[in-house]
Amino acid sequence: MQVIASAPGKAILFGEHAVVYGKPAIAMAIDRRAYVKVSKNPDKKIHVNIRDLNIRGYIDFQNNAIISDSPQKGILKYILNSLKKVHDGSGLNICIDVNIPIGGGLGSSAAVTVATIAAVSKYNNINLKEIEIAKYAHEVELEVQKSASPLDTTISTYGGLIYLEKDAKDIIQLEIDYNIPVVIGYTETRGDTGKLVAEVRKKKELYPKIIDPVIDSIESVVEEARNSILKNDKERIIELMNINHGLLDALGVNTKELSDMVYTARTAANCGSKITGAGGGGSIIAYCPYETEEVLSAIEEIENAININISKEGVKITVSN
Length: 321
Ligand code: MEV
Prior knowledge:
By secondary structure, the chain is of the alpha+beta class. The chain is 40% helix and 26% strand.
């Protein structure tokens, strides 16, 4: 038996970092997916091959260890911890394609985690509901990153355009009948989400009177943005995105490369642009309802850029014999 599961990456439109403190956030699943194929390995080892990243390795389930020479083997930790939730340690071949830019910010590790849990659980005849996949995947992110909100794993599991309520109490799909035209700019440098979240926490503890209001302002931006998105109020969405970028800058997660992309986008067209995800390398998002192509080519002049759309589909599993 062979099981293939796939899950989308994500782009956060509003609210990253503040979401770690129980604030609401808005994010979309993107039309770039991670694919995880699971089949039996007769030699009883758990072999992992991430083809597009050139990562190969073994998972030593019993000793909780990863054996790989690959410099980027960090992603294998998510796979090991995912297996611990839904596998008994018998031999497996796990073949992965991550069709999501891994510069960070686009939820590649969450997508790999969600798809791994979905594929391996199905392979073991465990029928998990979406809510259970999302719960296990969030636990894995917490174990690997130490601090993580459920946002990335939620989006990757359910797909769509999601408003995550305060304290993650509810997941609300924002039903819109128009496309959100978005360009992503990304660097080759991966921001370390765990480290960036820890640095923001440190700043918050050191300067509570300054940083707490910044976090509260991000919450207000998210609430305003939700209404503006539902009304397709382009000018307000643009403005709110730019405000959100300034607030993320105040939290200290900006870099020169991200800043250059953010302002290149705004110079190329009337658009909103901000860091998306953890920052510190990684990606920016530009909401460009008027001149998408212009923004895309302007960012491409200095870094990498892609045009993305919302993926309505979350995690998906197919079984073949
Ligand atoms: C990372 O994609 C988003 C952060 O808010 C961290 C998290 O929510 O766990 C920076």
